[in-house]
């Protein structure tokens, strides 16, 4: 709703990876299987998810290994990254930058009709997103507090640690 599909896919992929046994490499195709929705025509191609995962690798949130036995795994310290960090990486700009209505010029001096109502809400949203980490979200899923119902009606399955 508030985040782009790119950000949503990035966050869902990171939560999925964070719930896997530590150090276990996961193929992008496996992640895509959890994120796809055959009933939603807006589902991006596998290559789109691969690009998102590559961006997260370049930013140091994921480690990737190519070739046989390769895949993606969370980088050390990635579980401490918050939602805001991830969104700003994949969107390549600060969250909340620009007008909520998409106007080119919207600031206190030249405000759009919702500028002053949105401004404090935007600050609260940014604060909320900066408090939620990949690790805290994954832990809530592992603890059974939340189940991630993915598109297509599937539920995130957490593999048992060896």
Automatic annotation (TrEMBL):
Domain of life: Bacteria
A GO cellular component annotation in the UniProt record: cytosol
GO molecular function annotations of the record: DNA-binding transcription factor activity
InterPro entries assigned: TR_Rrf2-type_CS, Tscrpt_reg_Rrf2, WH-like_DNA-bd_sf, WH_DNA-bd_sf
Name under which the protein is recorded: Rrf2 family transcriptional regulator
